[in-house]
Amino acid sequence: MSAFMGATPLQVVAWTVPMAVGGLILSVTGGFILHKVSGTVLMIISCLGYVGSGLLFAIIPLGGNYWAYVFPAMICGTIAIDISFNLANIFITTTMPKAKQGLAGALIYCTMHMGIAVMLGIAGIVETQTKYLETFKSHYDSLRTLLTEKDFDAFSNGRAFHL
């Protein structure tokens, strides 16, 4: 955000505050709605949050507006993360016998962290393979490397929603 929106490091920190506040609110209210709403519906809402966040970050123009792009993306990201995390923990661990619930929790965390590591590796490959754009010495082309990673994020989220 600092590279293509011109934000200072302190502004970037302030811009991510909605994720923390939204996380606190959703973690508390999530417990009240998980038994009232179908898990499938909640997972669809979560996937739409992932897709919305990825798309909003992918379409930010150079010097884009915080309120039009970053704030809604942070809200969508918070919805996506909190709902899917709660669903995974509650529904997977409750389907296991009490003696194996710790194992189910460990499986969730291992799967999550392995997925993060693999996808960060792929995002790094996308970034290094698009570095050639910096040779054009155009400000837009050098920033296109950052935006290509966001395009990959949006595509991955859309594909996961499709599955």
Automatic annotation (TrEMBL):
* PANTHER family xrefs: MAJOR FACILITATOR SUPERFAMILY MULTIDRUG TRANSPORTER MFSC, MULTIDRUG TRANSPORTER, PUTATIVE (AFU_ORTHOLOGUE AFUA_4G13820)-RELATED
Q: What is the predominant subcellular site recorded for this chain?
A: membrane
What keywords sit in the KW lines? Membrane, Transmembrane, Transmembrane helix
Record membrane topology: Multi-pass membrane protein
Presence of keyword Transmembrane: yes
To which species is this protein native?
Penicillium subrubescens
Q: Where in the cell is it found?
A: Membrane
Where is the chain membrane-spanning?
12-34, 41-60, 66-91, 103-126
Presence of the UniProt keyword Ribosomal protein in the record: no
Q: What's the name of the protein?
A: Major facilitator superfamily (MFS) profile domain-containing protein
Q: Which GO terms describe its cellular component?
A: membrane
Classification from the root reads:
Eukaryota, Fungi, Dikarya, Ascomycota, Pezizomycotina
